[in-house]
Design goal:
By secondary structure, the protein is mainly beta. It is built from 3 helices and 19 strands. It has one domain: YVTN repeat-like/Quinoprotein amine dehydrogenase (Methylamine Dehydrogenase, Chain H, 7 Propeller), CATH 2.130.10. It has helices at 2-16, 21-25, 243-248, and strands at residues 44-47, 53-57, 62-67, 72-77, 87-89, 95-99, 104-108, 115-118, 124-129, 135-139, 145-149, 158-162, 171-172, 178-182, 187-192, 197-204, 213-214, 224-229, 233-238.
Length: 250
């Protein structure tokens, strides 16, 4: 039976493949047209006080430092701790980042040790420091909630709100309110983190999936710009800010 199956396979190959295919395949030469990137998908960007650009990758499970002058990159924090969906810097220079798939949130000050601030938060996505150094983060896609994170990693995350509609790519404004797009609602939200109250729906975004905020005077980058007027209103207008993209695409 085995020999009969082998015979059938040999006949099938002879019929399907024309003569010389196997031999000619060996004559092909592979020529790279575009060199591979140092990244395996970039999700979050952040610039520290020294002007160094950091790029986080979920797919690559690493956090990179980018040399914008030379157009090169190196791994600053490897897998698994280095997985980063978003990156934020505290007033004292501490860098924090979110491990979207692992559900962990880490921080590191300078070249010091890596500190795990929170765990058990699948889908932990965007994060931002307040001007007083307090840290906030949200779950999106694998969860839908806003938390305050203990910067010492001692206390468990404190949930502020949930079922908001996917608050992503947010930043604190000069009025100390949190501004960001709601992925599943296509709206801009203004959140009072102290009262646990969100004011959303005034402006509708055509594509909230690419929404991040840039406040005047802050190098946040992104696709949408929100400018609080009198610390009580915000103007949202679409813009193309390609500076970070250009730095990574050299």
């Amino acid at each position: 039976m085995t020999s009969r199956l082998a015979l059938y396979a040999a006949v099938a190959v002879t019929v399907v493949l024309p003569p010389g295919v196997g031999a000619s395949a060996q004559t092909y030469e592979v020529t790279p047209l575009v060199p591979g990137s140092a990244f395996h998908g970039v999700h979050g960007l952040g610039i520290d006080k020294a002007g160094r650009l950091f790029a986080g990758s979920v797919a690559g499970a690493a956090l990179y430092e980018v040399d914008r002058n030379n157009g090169t990159a190196k791994i600053a924090i490897p897998s698994p701790e280095g997985m980063a969906d978003d990156i934020a810097f505290a007033p004292d220079g501490t860098m924090a980042w979110t491990g979207f798939l692992t559900g962990d949130l880490y921080s590191r000050k300078g070249d010091g040790p890596i500190k795990k601030l929170a765990s058990g938060l699948p889908g932990i996505n965007s994060l931002a420091y307040r001007k007083d150094g307090r840290l906030y983060a949200t779950q999106v896609f694998l969860g839908d909630a806003l938390y305050e994170i203990d910067v010492e990693g001692v206390k468990p995350p404190r949930m502020i709100m949930e079922k908001m509609g996917g608050l992503n790519g947010f930043e604190f404004g000069p009025d100390d309110k949190l501004y960001g797009p709601l992925w599943f609602k296509g709206q801009v939200a203004k959140v009072d983190v102290d009262k646990g109250r969100a004011d959303g729906g005034r402006r509708r975004l055509q594509d909230s999936r690419r929404g991040q905020f840039r406040f005047q005077g802050q190098s946040v980058g992104g696709r949408y710009r929100a400018r609080p007027i009198g610390a009580s209103r915000s103007e949202n207008r679409r813009q193309e800010d390609g500076r970070a993209t250009q730095a990574l695409a050299r």
